[in-house]
Structures are given as C-alpha cells and as structure tokens.
Design a protein that fits this description.
With about 450 residues, the protein is mainly β. Helices cover about 10% and strands about 50% of the residues. A hairpin with a 4-residue loop joins strand 20 and strand 21.
C-alpha cells in the first residue's frame, strides 16, 4: 500500500516517476475532520425559515519521501466535498474530488538556502495578511451554495528560508491565479519576511508583500497591493503578548480592483479611476495563566482595520490583505451572518475577552468562553456597532490523535444595525450549535 501511495504521490508531483527510490524514507501523516453544526436565524428575524444544519467532512493525507540526498518531495491529497446525507460516491466521484493541494520538492542547502518549488501551503493560520492552506477553527460554513466549506488552498511557486544566528529570513514568489487569455489577468504574490530573536522575552519580525493583479483588457495599469508590517511577541512577567501593525501602499486600479476583491465601487474609488492603497491595521493580544484547581487562562485581543470614509477621493483607505485568515468568533469568523463577517479586518474594529480552564481532576477536558464586540471603523450614519457575540466551547482531548469539541455561539445584532438589513425591523439573535471531531494518523 505504501508503494502505491508513493507512486501516486510522485506522479502528482512531476508526472514522471523516473528512477526515484519510491520508498526511501517514505513518511505520511494525515487528519480526518468532521464538523456537525446547526445555525438558526441568520437574518435576525426569528419568524423566517432560515434554520440550517450540515455535517462537513475533510480528509487530508500528507506524504513525504526522498528523491536523492539533496532533494525530498511532499505531496498532500485532500478530499473535502462530502456532507452527511449525500448520495454514495463511486470511484469516479472520489477521483474527481481528491485534490493534490501540495506537490512540491524541497531543495536542501542549495546556495545556502532551502527552497520549496511547486504547489505548497504558505503562512500561518489566523494570519492578518497572507495564509494559504487548510482553514480550521473556527470552521467555515457555506450558506451561498450550502456545500462543504472545509476549504484548503495553496500557492504555485517558490518559497525559501534562511537561518543565520538569531535571524530567520523567508521569501516567496508565487502564481495565485493563471489566466490564459491573450491579455491575461494573472494574479501573483511576492514577499519577504524577517524574524529576530532579540531575547527570551521578546521576538521581533517584519514583512513586505506585493499582490499584483494584471489589468488584462481592462483600462489602466496593473493593480498592485503592497503591504508592509512589523510584529512583536514574547512573554513578560508571565503575560504572553503579541502585537502587529500593517500598512497598505501601492496602486489601485478600480477596473481590476473590483474583479479581484469583489467590493462595491462607491465604497472605494470612482468608476474607471486609479488611486493609492493607504489602509492600515493594528492587532494586539495578551494571555495570562494561573494555577487554580488546574490551569486557568485569561486572554484579550483588540484589532482595528481602517475603513474608507470618502468614496470620491483617489485613495483606497480601507485596509486590504492578499489573503487574510483573521477570523474572530465562531459565528462572525465562520461566515454564519448575512452581509457581514468572514475573514479580514477591512473597516472593522473588534475586541474580545475570554477565559479557558483545564481542571486538574479532568485533565482531558478544557472549557472556554469568549465575548466579542464588532463595529465598523468608519461607521455610517444609521449605526455604529454591528453587534456582540458570545462563544462557549468544550474540548475533550482523548489522546494526542483523537479530539472532540462541542460549541455554542450567539450573535446579538445591534438594534440600529439590524434595522438597516431586516424588513420588518427585528434584532433577533443568530445562534450556532455544533460538535467537531478530529482524528490524526
């Protein structure tokens, strides 16, 4: 079986199995995830029939093996289409829905650097600016087509890493979207990162990314979103902290901007004009733990992304990100709301406070609660707050490889905001009840 898997992996990677030693240092791991959830009252009107429930499943299989002493390969197969109650699948269905989301070679020590070449995951979950990979907690829901939303994404290109003392450097050059038209509208990502381990209690970092969208047949120049940022994290007197500031720059072309980001014309630039990206974002969080009949932790976070307060100027003042995975809250971050929520920090100011407890007498159990507040940074005249969310969660860690999670969340819309999106006016709460299972192998 291992030989079959290895052969399939190499075929997916190169299309030519050549003379590689397919079983040389072959390793694999994977994960099975099941998320069962029920949502009620997405539109804040309790009397409408909008209750939904689904059971989404995702299977990931990661495989790695050596091609020679300097090169190893990694292939990740993902199947994430199935929901409970779907018709049985035959081999054709399975074949059509197993996607190779990673297929890259790792060149070790070439020119003093490690290089990844091919399709790969990039970034860290929850990142404010750039993340491509499996989206995990909070699990997403697809209310548009009511399909499985346990998505996985990747980039096609090159990334590299270099360590020098306390420094760590990285770079990426990738194709995000490839359009074969004569006047193409390709989308590309380039970036560099740096980290410095200043001391045990303080680590610094910085990054610069460019997301370039070619204009193609659209009028005007290419749209390129540039983002620079700095980070700091560490621990001081038992308090873990993390802070990040990001600034947008670059050239915005309204004709391209709409196709890439899908945002309303009036909110950013006048039609058929160019301007400058000028948004900014800030995020900071802290966490502190004490021993109280087990491990009790308290945490808090504040995040703000600028909004655009003038639709007639030549600036995109709302904070933009290449592919943000910042998704606070089970309901907000899980895409369970109408018109608002999901990923990103554009025109959003939010804070949350919470606590987690791992009782010493029940070491496999961790319970937690968080309270969130969401508001537009540039508020319209009708309202200044979207609403509040309360999340409750219980995790049971059966072992290192098996975990169960039960959760409940309630989003309570601000009455002024709800009045602008419901007819008749109503501000009933949105609720989500769910359970998730994870098996690692």
């Amino acid at each position: 079986m291992k030989k079959v898997i290895a052969m399939l992996a190499l075929v997916a990677l190169t299309g030519n199995i050549a003379s590689a030693e397919l079983l040389k240092n072959f390793k694999y791991d994977g994960k099975i995830e099941v998320n069962a959830w029920q949502m009620n009252d997405r539109d804040y009107v309790e009397t409408t029939t909008d209750k939904r429930n689904d059971v989404d499943t995702r299977v990931q299989l990661n495989m790695g093996f050596d091609l020679n002493e300097d090169v190893n390969a990694v292939v990740s197969a993902v199947k994430a289409n199935r929901q409970a109650g779907d018709a049985s699948e035959d081999m054709n269905d399975v074949q059509n829905n197993v996607l190779f989301e990673q297929a890259y070679i790792n060149l070790k020590g070439v020119l003093g650097l490690d290089h990844k070449l091919g399709r790969q995951y990039y970034g860290n979950e929850g990142d404010l600016n750039v993340y491509y990979g499996p989206q995990s907690w909070p699990f997403m829901a697809d209310h548009a087509v009511q399909g499985n939303a346990l998505s996985v994404s990747g980039i096609d290109g090159w990334s590299s890493a270099y360590n020098w003392g306390k420094w760590n450097f990285g770079a990426v050059l990738a194709k995000i979207d490839n359009n074969q038209a004569a006047a193409d509208t390709d989308e590309d990502l380039t970036g560099i990162t740096a980290k410095y381990d200043l001391m045990e209690d303080l680590k610094l970092g910085g990054y610069a990314y460019r997301y370039n969208a070619q204009a193609g047949a659209n009028a005007g120049p290419n749209d390129h979103l540039d983002t620079i940022g700095v980070k700091a994290d560490g621990k001081f007197m038992g308090v873990e902290y993390n802070a990040e500031v990001a600034k947008n720059m670059g050239l915005a072309n309204e004709n391209v901007h709409q196709a890439v980001y899908g945002l309303a014309n009036a909110f950013y630039l006048p039609n058929n004009t160019t301007g400058d990206y000028s948004g900014m974002a800030f995020k900071a969080n802290v966490k502190y733990g004490i021993d109280l009949l087990g491990k009790l932790s308290f945490m808090g976070e504040y995040a703000m992304g600028s909004g655009d307060d003038d639709a007639t100027d030549d600036k995109v003042e709302g904070f933009m990100a290449a592919n943000s995975d910042y998704r606070p809250g089970i309901i907000w971050g899980g895409n369970h709301l109408n018109t608002i929520g999901g990923n990103g920090l554009s025109n959003l100011t939010t804070f949350n406070v919470g606590a987690m407890w791992n009782p010493s007498k029940i070491e496999k159990l961790t319970i937690g609660a968080k309270y969130f507040n969401f508001a537009p940074t540039e508020a319209p005249a009708a309202y200044d707050v979207y609403g509040n969310e309360l999340d409750l969660c219980a995790n049971w860690k059966h072992s290192e490889n098996v975990g169960v999670k039960a959760y409940y969340a309630m989003f309570m819309p601000d009455s002024d905001y709800a009045a602008t999106v419901t007819a008749p006016d109503s501000d009933d709460a949105t609720s989500v009840l769910g359970a998730a299972f994870t098996v690692k192998f």
